């Protein structure tokens, strides 16, 4: 729904107090004000529009950015590991502004109520059309994690998002969670739905038998007479972070050497601009940018970092720009290049927030979304309870949304301890909002969301925590997989991100008593990667959580978020709570 003139002026009034400086719109109607908000003068002659990690969110949502995104070692104090006011300082933005709300967790509830929801493909479509109209020839690049993350995406095997992406005008994409639909389904979409419309590229996915490319490694498109190469980089650790059986015949990996070959090959074919459409995660992209030369920009995803400025990385061939365009359809990145004499002479980069109240819904996209959702609306809208506290997921260690899942698993399954995966997708609810089946599915919808109950020794529990912690805090980005720490319920522990592998987790306690290495504990969890889980007959996590929610008498108190006691790495500009 769009703001009326009166409502929009109220937003502008509040925003002006917060330092937005929007007084020049005070006499404008809502449409004029909206147009001015997204004014972005054309620059140069080559433009790329970049979206990533929308996680199948077709309708506008709330999404709280992290208050904890620790940078360790050489990454401390550097993008993307800045949160709150530290990020605003680098971006030169005022606290309380609409951009501050889009980029940070600061005053989340209050700002969310003031500025409304973000994202939504109908509103994103309007912005994409505006940018393409002002930038003839611009290409829309989709960094992946598009076909997963909602109930309708799960129930339609990603078809809802495929249809929406085609209507949105996506030109090129790469992937990650797409692969959890299975090899056959992915190939079916690419060969049938995408044929002649969308190029799916990934230089680092090969067949396990002969090492042949599974997808096109790159495409070369001409933009205003300039040959531009887009090289794909799918998530390198798909068979590790997700069940291997979904991609049993394929291999992945970072593959720097092959990336360099692809860059050189496209340059030899006449490409004057080379960009990488990546799902590495930003830390990995930054390292790759220093190791592979000849890339003008890496447009990245996976770690959901909304970056308001481009990082400039020096390498032996010159420099490479690295950006990341957030998640959930909240942002559209706009990279403009001025190409002269066969090379990039200058650039401009902007990360535009997609505010549903400030962009009118595109009628065609809105109609498609309504059609897609129609068979499921009643089921999605069913109210399971009302939350008395804000529910969110994002952050290195835990969030109140995952805490709800942990509490539900322990109570329903009779577990002493619970683990919830460190997924970064999932939407937020404000205090007082209904917990619907749609929100629950936003937090849990995967093709392997089985709830589990296992006997684990204290030693095994420590091993699990250490392994995931190393994935998050290994000083070498190439050993990181881009997720957050496994969320832990029922058990307290201490964590030193600066310690060596195997030594970061200490002082594990259950009800105040130390966890014993040889003692067996009942541990609940969900989303196991083992193939045996497919035939174990376990309920999906959403059924477990729904049972718990319905037992609460209509209201769920604010969750007390269980986070570890940090014994190293602080103070840190990536830690605000």
Map the helices and strands:
Elements lengths: L4 H13 L12 H8 L8 E6 L32 H8 L6 H6 L4 H8 L5 H14 L4 E4 L8 H5 L3 H10 L3 E2 L9 H11 L5 E2 L5 E2 L10 E6 L2 E8 L4 H4 L8 E2 L4 H13 L4 E6 L3 H10 L5 E4 L10 E5 L2 E7 L6 E10 L2 E11 L9 H11 L3 H5 L1 E5 L12 H14 L3 E4 L13 E3 H8 L6 E7 H16 L13 E3 L1 E5 L9 E6 L2 E2 L5 E7 L14 H10 L4 E2 L8 E2 L11
Parallel strand pairs: 1-2, 2-3, 3-4, 7-9, 9-10, 10-12, 15-24, 16-23, 20-25
Antiparallel strand pairs: 1-13, 5-8, 6-7, 11-12, 13-14, 15-17, 16-19, 18-23, 20-21, 21-22
Helix pairs in contact: 8-13, 15-18, 16-18
- Beta content comes to 15-25%
Summarize the amount of helix as a percent range. Answer: 25-40%
How many β-strand runs?
A: 25
Q: Give me the number of helical elements.
A: 18
- Taken from the alpha-carbon principal axes, the silhouette is globular
Structural class: alpha/beta
What is the CA-atom radius of gyration, in angstroms? 23 Å
Quote the average pLDDT.
94
How far is the first residue's CA from the last residue's CA?
34 Å
Task: Point out poorly predicted stretches.
Answer: 1-30
Largest β-sheet summary: 6 strands, mixed
Quaternary state of the chains: single chain
């Amino acid at each position: 729904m769009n703001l009326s003139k009166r409502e929009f002026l109220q937003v502008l009034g509040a925003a002006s107090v917060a330092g937005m400086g929007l007084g020049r719109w005070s006499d404008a109607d809502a449409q004029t004000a909206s147009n001015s908000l997204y004014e972005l003068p054309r620059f140069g002659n080559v433009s790329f529009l970049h979206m990533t990690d929308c996680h199948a969110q077709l309708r506008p949502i709330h999404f709280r950015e992290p208050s904890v995104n620790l940078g360790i070692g050489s990454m401390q104090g550097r993008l993307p590991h800045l949160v709150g006011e530290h990020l605003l300082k680098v971006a030169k933005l005022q606290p309380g502004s609409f951009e501050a709300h889009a980029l940070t967790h600061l005053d989340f509830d209050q700002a969310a109520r003031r500025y409304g929801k973000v994202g939504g493909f109908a509103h994103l479509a309007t912005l994409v059309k505006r940018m393409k109209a002002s930038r003839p020839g611009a290409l829309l690049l989709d960094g992946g994690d598009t076909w997963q993350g909602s109930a309708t995406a799960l129930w339609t095997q990603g078809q809802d998002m495929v249809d929406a992406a085609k209507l949105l005008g996506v030109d090129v994409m790469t992937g990650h969670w797409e692969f959890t639909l299975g090899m056959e389904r992915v190939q079916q979409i690419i060969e049938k739905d995408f044929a002649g419309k969308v190029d799916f590229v990934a230089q680092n996915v090969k067949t396990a038998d002969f090492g042949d490319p599974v997808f096109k490694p790159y495409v070369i498109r001409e933009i205003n007479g300039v040959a531009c190469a887009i090289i794909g980089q799918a998530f390198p650790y798909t068979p590790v972070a997700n069940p291997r059986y979904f991609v049993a015949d394929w291999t992945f990996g970072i593959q720097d050497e092959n990336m360099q070959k692809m860059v050189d090959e496209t340059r030899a074919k006449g490409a004057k601009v080379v960009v990488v459409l990546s799902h590495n995660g930003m830390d990995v992209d930054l390292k790759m940018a220093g190791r592979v030369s000849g890339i003008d920009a890496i447009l990245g995803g996976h770690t959901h970092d909304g970056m308001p400025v481009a990082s400039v990385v020096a390498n032996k061939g010159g420099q490479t720009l690295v950006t990341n365009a957030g998640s959930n359809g909240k942002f559209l990145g706009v990279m403009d290049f001025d190409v002269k004499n066969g090379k990039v002479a200058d650039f401009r980069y902007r990360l535009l927030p997609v505010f549903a109240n400030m962009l009118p819904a595109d009628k065609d996209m809105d109609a498609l979304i309504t059609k897609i959702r129609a068979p499921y609306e009643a089921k999605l809208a069913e109210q399971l309870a009302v939350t008395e506290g804000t529910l969110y997921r994002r952050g290195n260690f835990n969030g109140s949304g995952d805490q709800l899942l942990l509490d539900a698993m322990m109570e329903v399954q009779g577990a002493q301890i619970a683990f919830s995966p460190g997924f970064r997708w999932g939407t937020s609810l404000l205090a007082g909002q209904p917990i619907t089946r749609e929100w629950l599915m936003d937090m849990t919808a995967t093709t392997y969301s089985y709830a589990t109950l296992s006997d684990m020794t204290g030693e095994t529990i420590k091993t699990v925590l250490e392994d995931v912690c190393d994935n998050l805090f290994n000083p070498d980005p190439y050993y990181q997989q881009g997720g957050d720490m496994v969320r832990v319920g029922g058990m307290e522990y201490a964590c030193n991100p600066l310690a060596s592998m195997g030594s970061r987790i200490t002082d594990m306690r259950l009800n105040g008593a130390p966890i014993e290495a040889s003692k067996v504990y009942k541990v609940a969890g969900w989303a196991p990667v083992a193939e045996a889980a497919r035939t174990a007959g376990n309920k999906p996590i959403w059924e477990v959580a729904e049972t718990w929610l319905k037992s609460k008498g209509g209201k769920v108190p604010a969750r007390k978020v269980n986070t570890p006691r940090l014994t190293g790495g602080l103070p840190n500009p990536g830690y605000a709570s």
